[in-house]
């Protein structure tokens, strides 16, 4: 899924505000490296990954 710049910024804002208050769960079949397809701005993509992984737990399918 590809988001336009505004959509990516809005999703980032939602994730940022949510993680400040409670947990966030995201499921994806893609590695973080391929998230640039969704978040086409590399800096925004890095910020989203940072927000989701800081102090978090990653679970991988075996």
Automatic annotation (TrEMBL):
Under the heading Gene3D superfamilies, the entry gives: P-loop containing nucleotide triphosphate hydrolases
Keyword ATP-binding tagged: yes
Nucleotide-binding: is it a keyword of this entry? yes
Q: Which organism is it from?
A: Nocardia brasiliensis (strain ATCC 700358 / HUJEG-1)
Q: Which residues form the IstB-like ATP-binding domain?
A: 2-54
- Annotated coiled-coil positions are none
What are the protein's UniProt keywords? ATP-binding, Nucleotide-binding
* GO MF terms, alphabetically ordered: ATP binding
Question: Taxonomically, which superkingdom?
Answer: Bacteria
Listed name of the protein: IstB-like ATP-binding protein
């Amino acid at each position: 899924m590809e988001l336009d710049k505004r959509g990516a910024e809005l999703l980032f804002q939602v994730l940022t505000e949510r993680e400040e208050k409670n947990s966030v769960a995201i499921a994806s079949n893609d590695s973080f490296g391929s998230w640039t397809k969704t978040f086409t701005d590399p800096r925004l993509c890095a910020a989203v990954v940072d927000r989701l992984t800081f102090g978090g737990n990653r679970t991988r399918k075996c």
